[in-house]
Structure formats: structure tokens, C-alpha cells
Amino acid sequence: MKVSVLFSGGKDSALAAILLEPLFEVELVTCTFSLLSNGSIGSEAAEKLEMRHRIVCLENSILDDAYQIIVQDGFPKNALNYIHLSALKTLAEEKNTKFIADGVRRDDRVPRLNNSQIRSLEDKYSISYISPLGGYGRSAVNALVDKHLLIHEDKSENLAKADYEAELREKIACEIGGDAVKELFPPHVQSRIIERIK
Amino acid sequence: MKVSVLFSGGKDSALAAILLEPLFEVELVTCTFSLLSNGSIGSEAAEKLEMRHRIVCLENSILDDAYQIIVQDGFPKNALNYIHLSALKTLAEEKNTKFIADGVRRDDRVPRLNNSQIRSLEDKYSISYISPLGGYGRSAVNALVDKHLLIHEDKSENLAKADYEAELREKIACEIGGDAVKELFPPHVQSRIIERIK
């Protein structure tokens, strides 16, 4: 059974893939709007996990819509959730897809699908959506990450990572400047994997 | 890292244990009020999984309280959730426990802990609570069960299974008769594992 796992090169999506590996044929997928080098960052991180990887280019209209949402809202939650759901839909509508997965944890608020979005995604595309970390809290995730991954953590603006946030930040910086990015995104720490511990 | 997994001998707790097995030292735990032969049913099922197993006797006051709750409510949800949380607390307060787990799925409504119960359980006992199937829906669980387990499914009243529901039904039958059991529990299908497919 093949599963396509949305992969940012961060610890959560890496750990999700490690949890799935014994039971599925795992394929990591980095989605990108080709605005930054997300594809190659994802590809390098996937090599460190020794897992199959491919890059999927998302339609630019998704980033345009997300930009409109974040500028209107004044905060990133809905825009990031919109990109996340759009990326899952893009995978779900590919031929022969049966299982798609992501790195969403039990306590995550962004990105997160609500119950009706999950039901709609699974029913419309006849796929199963899995969040391997959906029943894991922060302490369990950290314990497993410590055991299986060497990671680098830093503030999101300092870290090259293959996630939508980086490209949405870049889009905002291009459109209305770097100050707007600081206003719209609260500072937070992100991670990138350096090595898999075996 | 050792994890204690609440184990009823049904497909969900068995699959939860299978998911944890590559990453943890798994110990299956069947909790019982010693009213039925739950302990030995759990033990036999654990042998089929080739996993370590032990039986924990829960305090009878928990069953008494659950009985009061279901009779007052007229439906089983709160009573079963109460026993489930009590069983998790019993494991959590054991010495040297770091990780406890169960077979709760994404779509389960009973048993299920709410967010504040999870936070309280983890903080009070300094443990991590994991639901390995918390991010898996019905279709993904069924696909994995088909691949890894031979199971027998039947209506709950016909199936000998090492879960709290069986003992709560027995308690009600003893106290106020079998008709009350039928009134209080809606008919539903449960599972018991026959064999692990390797």
C-alpha cells in the first residue's frame, strides 16, 4: 500500500513518514509554488531519511487566494489551512492515489482540517487521509524525534524549510514588503532535519 | 522506551499496538473488574500478537460509579468514558510509566478523552498519552486490519471480548436484569482478533 506524505523537511512530517514506513510504501511529496527552492530543500531532507521523494508544483492561483485571505484576515491561520487543504486535494486527485498523509499533530491548530473537510476530502476523492501524529502530543513527538532525528531549530524567518509558510511570506514580501510579513506572522520556532539516527 | 497499551483483544487496540511496535517496547495491558474472564481473553489475544501482556485489576468502585452513571443517563457514553479514563489513570500512576496508549480512532466518540482531560492526565502524572489511531479514519484502519489481522466480528452481546463494556453489561444484568442491558446499549458490532498475519 502506497502513501503520499506531504513533506516540508521539518521534524513533524519526517516523523510522520517514519511512523508510516513499517506499514506502507512511503513516498514523500513536497508541494511548492516555485517561488523559493522548496523543492530542492525537500529533496535534500528526503535523502537524509533515505525515502522516495517527488516535487509537486501547485497552481499559483492557490497562493494568490491565500495571499488575499491573509491580507484580509490580518493573521495567517486561514491562509495556511487553505494552502494545506489545497495541497492535499492536489495529491488526492492524482491517479491511483489511495492514501495521503501529513505531519499534523494532536495539538496543532494550523494546519488542521476540520471533520467536515476530512469527510469531504475522503468521500470526493475515494482516498484515506491519515495524520500519523494525530494522536500524539508534544511530549511524545519530542521523545520520538530525539530518538530518530537530528534537527536544527530556529525562528521561521531564519530557517530555509520547504513549507508553504516560507512561500507565502515571500509572496507578501514581494507584494507589500518585509514589514508586512513581520506584522502578519507571529514569531515562532520551526525545525529542519539534519540527519536520521539509525 | 516502553509503552503500556490498553488492550481489549479487539482490532483497534491490536492495530494500535502494531503501529507502536517498531518504535516502542510494547506492553499490552488488559484492565478488568474480575467480573468476567477479561484477563484471560486479553491474554490469549496478546499471545496471537506475540506481544507482552499483563492484567490489571481495576478498583470495583470504578464499576460501581459507572453503573450509577449509565443508569442515571440511560445511555452508555459517559459511563464508558469514565471507565476508560479511570483505566488510563490507573496505568499512569504506576511507577516508571512514561507512555500510555489506547486504540481510540479519529472518528470514535466512545471512548474518547477531551482536550482538558488529556492535558490533565499528562500534566498530573508526567506521562505522554498516545492514541496511535487518533489520525486514522475508518477506511485506513480497515485497510491496515485486512493486511495485518484476521478478526471475528459479531454483535457485542455475542462476542467474548476483554473490554469494559462486557463487564458493565454484566454488572447491569446482575443488578437489574438482562432487559435493562438491551435498553441501555444500542446494538453494535465488535471485533476480536483471531490471528496476526505476518
TrEMBL record, chains A, B:
Q: Which domain of life is it from?
A: Archaea
Q: What keywords sit in the KW lines?
A: Hydrolase
Which Pfam families does the entry link to?
Answer: DUF7411 (PF24167)
InterPro entries reported for this sequence: DUF7411, Rossmann-like_a/b/a_fold
Q: Which GO terms describe its molecular function?
A: hydrolase activity
Please give the name of this protein.
Answer: Alpha hydrolase
> What is the scientific name of the source organism?
Methanosalsum natronophilum
